[in-house]
Amino acid sequence: MGIQWHAPARVLFENLGGKSALDSSGKLGKLLATNYGSYDAWLADFKGTAAMRGIGWTILYQDILGGTLFNQW
Question: How remote is the C-alpha of 51 from its chain's centroid?
Answer without folding.
Answer: 13
